[in-house]
Amino acid sequence: MREPVMPRRPEGLFIGLCTLDVIQLVDHAPASNEKLTSRRQTIAAGGPAANAAVAFSHLGGAARLVTAIGSHPLGLGATADLHRLGVTVADLTPDSTEPPAVSSIMVTASTGERAVASTNATGHRVTPPDDLDALVAACDIVQFDGHHMELAVSAAHIARAVGRPTVLDAGSWKDGMENLLPSIDVTVCSADFHPPGTNTPTETLRFLHEHGVRWSAVTQGAEPIVWRGPDDGGTVDVPTVPVTDTLGAGDFLHGALTHHLALRGHLTSQHFTEALRAAAAVASRACTSFGTRAWLQGE
Fold first, then answer.
1. What 3-state class would DSSP assign to 232?
2. How far apart are CA 110 and CA 115, in angstroms?
3. How far apart are CA 243 and CA 221, in angstroms?
């Protein structure tokens, strides 16, 4: 009897930001000069690309994160957290002794809404590594979050040249993004993403189409996702769930979407909407527990 052929794990390359997230669950956001005792706290690696890689790995993919972390003890903690969750980390600043970007986050217990303060990628300037061509060629799909833009543009150009699909998590418009978009196949934006001259989801989708992005979508929290393809468009409903914490939900949506796209091959409108629907289900599940890790264990 022939052995059953096991499906190959999709390999995803994630390029962008890694932070250390310090997350506090509070009754309300503090007023000026107010001190609060939080209900709970959790500490984990964060950042859009890092969290997306975690979701990709959780769904069964092989995830590699290319980022800047460094050798500071806080950075080593973030790296260890990612390794524990199956994410391979390629740190482009391994000798840096500076602390990594730390995101201070407060989640309001009654609503699940979060307030975030972080330096993001402003403390690190990274250049493309010598083996970037090999890293891109070895993967099935590449996702970007718009941070470390020089690295992102170089990797996107390589991906386009060797035929690897590219996905952009567009949380906000960033300097240099106009150089990245022509090499992007799929962009999913938050409602806060406003390219120059745009104010509505329809205008954003039109802008992306005019800049070479074939498939795009705008998420709107609990409201339906609005999408556009080469020939048509529409909406995808988001599951209704009891919300405990919205932190990281968009990142996990992008990681799940990238995983589903990596399994699809040729993309059609049906495939795109199915992938969006499945990714929205993952993001909604993540919203039902506090922090960015409990949902992975089904808590």
1. coil
2. 14
3. 11
CA pair distance 176, 118, nearest whole angstrom: 20
The residue among 222, 276, 278, 287 whose CA lies nearest residue 60 is 278
Is the pLDDT confidence value at 23 over 80?
Answer: yes
Answer yes or no: is 215 within a domain: yes
Q: At 5, is the pLDDT very low, low, confident or very high (cuts 50, 70, 90)?
A: very low
Beta strands in 203-287 (DSSP E): 215-220, 223-228, 233-236
* Tokens at 30, concatenated: 């503090």
Residue 144 lies in a domain: yes
User: 289: which 2 tokens?
Assistant: 């527990």
The model's pLDDT over 89-98, given as tens digits with 9 standing for 90+, comes to 999 999 999 9
Token couple for 222: 């609990």
Report yes or no on 90 lying in a domain.
Answer: yes
The residues, ordered by sequence, that sit 6+ positions from 200 with a Cβ below 8 Å of its Cβ are none
- Tally of domains within the chain: 1
In-domain check, residue 2: no
Distance CA 170, CA 177 (A): 9
Task: Give pTM, 2 decimals.
Answer: 0.94
CATH code, domain carrying 291: 3.40.1190.20
CB atoms within 10 A of CB 156: 24
Whose CA is closest to 171, among 268, 47, 275, 10? 47
Residue 120 is predicted with a pLDDT of 82
Q: Domain span at residue 71?
A: 11-297
- What is the C-alpha to C-alpha distance for residues 108 and 24, in angstroms, rounded to an integer? 9
What is the model's pLDDT at position 122? Answer: 74
* pLDDT tens digits, 29-86: 888 999 999 999 999 999 999 999 999 999 999 999 999 999 999 999 999 999 999 9
